[in-house]
Amino acid sequence: MNQLNTRVAQLDTRVTQNHNIATQNHNNVTQQITQLNQDMTQGFADLRVVLAATEHNTVARVANSHVNRPNVPLMALHDLATGAPIPGFPGTIAQITAMQGADVNNVLMALNLPVNGTVPERRQRLRLHIGLLAETA
């Protein structure tokens, strides 16, 4: 009988250990699912920002494509990461022409565009990306 009690106690210990392992696994999976849900929620929020900025930028490019004089206001594009208007965005074609290298780079980076090349090449890249015609010499 003593041997039977020992075996039952061992089985009870194993069942308890397995139950604890199963509970821990369940908790781990629940935490992972919760984290995935949070990550997806944030991803969808980020995607909504990008989509809204992209839609705004498409409209701005169309509006800017009709600008043909140096001092006519341009419609500012929005930063794809924040959805906010790009700081330092040139207000006119004349302002693009006067932009220094660092200022051009800041706007190009906000639009996820490369910043290589000479300043005139970067200004041209900016002009084309915001909907303007290429500047002719």
Structure characterization notes:
This protein is an all-alpha fold and 137 residues long. The protein has a domain at 40-129. Helix content is 66%, strand content 0%. It is built from four helices and no strands. It has helices at residues 2-64, 93-98, 101-110, 119-129. Helix 3 (101-110) packs parallel to helix 4. The longest helix has 63 residues, at 2-64. It is rod-shaped.
**Total number of strands:** 0
Mean pLDDT: 94
State Rg: 30 Å
Share in β-strands: under 5%
Largest sheet: none
- What is the percent of helical residues? 55-70%
Span between termini: 104 Å
Q: Based on helices, strands and strand pairing, what is the structural class?
A: mainly alpha
Unreliable sequence segments = none
Shape: rod-shaped
Order of secondary-structure elements: HHHH
Please report the number of helical segments.
4
How would you concisely characterize the structure shown here?
The protein has 137 residues and is mainly α.
Based on the model shown, name its key terms:
mainly alpha, 0% strand
Task: Please outline the helices and strands.
Layout: H1 2-64, H2 93-98, H3 101-110, H4 119-129
